[in-house]
Specification:
single chain, mainly alpha, Four Helix Bundle (Hemerythrin (Met), subunit A), 13 helices, 67% helix
């Protein structure tokens, strides 16, 4: 919203007449039972002061009040869609949660380029850390950061490491990895100095080619084994959870020592076949 339009809208919202309980109940019934748009409009207009009041509580996050009001209006309409007039509760009481939730979600999505507050505990930390820090700092003796983090951790039920990380995020703005390291240029960007433990692209491609080649060698060499040898090798060596000698012995009706002997012979046959078909196997 532009400044003038925003002020006019807020002034109109704050001057809208309240609804008496009986009138509110009647409008809610008309909206729920007959989808009466006029009834919905009157409910929304009469409660926009609640949206504006809630938006002012979140103004210290640095986002435009007009945007917060718009998000709160979305929450207000969501509350109207879910409100059950037969319950003995005022609409304002019910709508407050939806308005606050809509605004908080908007703040979490737009306050930082880094997504935060993905759990209920993280959201509570994000929206309460400043208030708790101010309250604890006003005590007779100043608290160290470690003591402060411990107090907040116990109050909100989150790990101290999460408190420290959130405090760091709230105390400094986002920094772009594409920002220059120094004024004047010529010294590179922050991105240039990030070290990655991941393999280089050519290493990834090379490993993929080698894996495919060796897989082909093994598949061809397995043809030299008989059915029992092949089964033992597959179940012992080519599955994520290899079968034990005891398990294979019980399945094949032989002793575990006999399974071990067959496996050793099959491995030797595989090695001979691999070398015969691919002389470069030893070098690989």
């Amino acid at each position: 919203m532009e400044d003038n339009a925003g002020r006019l809208f807020i002034r109109a919202a704050m001057s809208a007449p309240y609804l008496e309980r009986e009138e509110e109940h009647e409008l809610a019934l008309r909206w729920k039972e007959r989808a009466d748009q006029q009834a919905l409009h009157r409910i929304a207009v009469s409660h926009m002061r609640l949206v504006v009041a809630m938006a002012t509580r979140f103004r210290h996050f640095g986002l435009p009040i007009g945007d917060l009001v718009q998000e709160g209006h979305v929450g207000l309409l969501e509350a109207a869609a879910r409100f059950e007039p037969e319950r003995d509760v005022r609409f304002s009481t019910y709508a407050t949660w939806w308005i606050r939730a809509s605004m908080q979600d908007y703040i979490l999505r737009n306050w930082s380029i880094v997504r935060g507050g993905t759990s209920s505990a993280q959201k509570a930390l994000f929206f309460n850390l400043r208030r708790l820090r101010a309250r604890l700092a006003s005590g007779p003796e100043p608290l160290s950061n470690a003591a402060l983090y411990q107090e907040v951790s116990e109050a909100l039920g989150v790990p101290e490491n999460d408190v420290a990380m959130m405090d760091s995020r709230l105390s400094a703005p986002d920094s772009s990895l594409n920002a220059p390291l120094a004024d004047g240029g010529g010294t590179g960007e922050r991105m240039d100095f990030l070290v990655s433990d991941e393999p280089l692209p050519d290493e990834v491609v090379g490993e993929a080619i080698d894996f495919e080649r060796r897989s082909g060698w093994l598949k061809a060499a397995l043809g030299a084994l008989n059915a029992r040898e092949l089964r033992i090798i597959e179940e012992r060596r080519l599955t994520d959870e290899g079968a034990t000698l005891e398990e294979l012995g019980a399945t094949l009706g032989i002793s575990k020592e006999r399974v071990r002997q067959i496996e050793a012979r099959a491995l030797q046959k595989l090695k001979v076949e691999l070398v015969r078909q691919n002389p470069e196997f030893l070098a690989a």
